[in-house]
Amino acid sequence: MSFGVSFSRPSASAPCPCGRAVFGDCCGPLLDGAPAPSAERLMRSRYTAFAVGDDRHLARTWHPRTRPDEIDLDDIEWVGLVVEDAAEEGDAATVTFRAAWRRGTERGELAELSRFVRRAGRWVYVDGVVNPPGA
After folding, report:
1. How far apart, in whole angstroms, are the C-alpha atoms of residue 97 and residue 112?
2. What pLDDT score does 131 carry?
3. What is residue 45's predicted lDDT score, i.e. its pLDDT?
4. Range 18-31 burial, b when 16+ CB lie within 10 A, else e
């Protein structure tokens, strides 16, 4: 398993790709390794990691049982995130979101119901259902 592709990190005062706040007050600290205070915040930081190409953060926050050997950060440009629902119960959580993307002139949207668990005190992504019923 090898991770560590170079990525384009936003400045601390730039808008965060997840749309919540400025990068330095939002996903920046999580990409640096700070624990996410909630599954929703972890999901937002993972969206940001896909948007900026930070495969190390994605690997670090993916449950080891479901993490792939390689993370493909293809040429998709992630251009918008809407969190529709987030629910936590104990050490388990779900987050439903929509993420808009573009590749050249092609446009699309990914809808996912993501599952998370708290492992050793930190939230990690387990898996997701793409285009869940009702999406």
Report:
1. 6
2. 85
3. 98
4. bebeebeebbbebb
- Cα-based torsion angle of the residue sequence 46, 24, 3, 1 in order, rounded to the nearest 10 degrees: -50
Q: Which two tokens stand for residue 58?
A: 């994605």
Kindly report the three-state secondary structure assignment for every residue of 88-105: EECCEEEEEEEEEEEECC
Q: Which domains does the chain have, with CATH numbers?
A: 23-130 (3.10.450.50)
Mean pLDDT of 88-110: 96
Tell me the pLDDT band of 1, cut-offs 50, 70 and 90.
very low
Q: Could you give the angle at the alpha carbon of 17 between the alpha carbons of 31 and 123, nearest 5°?
A: 40
Q: Is the pLDDT assigned to residue 19 strictly greater than 50? A: yes
CB 125 within 8 A of CB 118: no
* Residue 75 banded pLDDT, cuts 50, 70, 90: confident
CB 86 within 8 A of CB 94: yes
Could you give the 3-state DSSP secondary structure of residue 124? Answer: strand
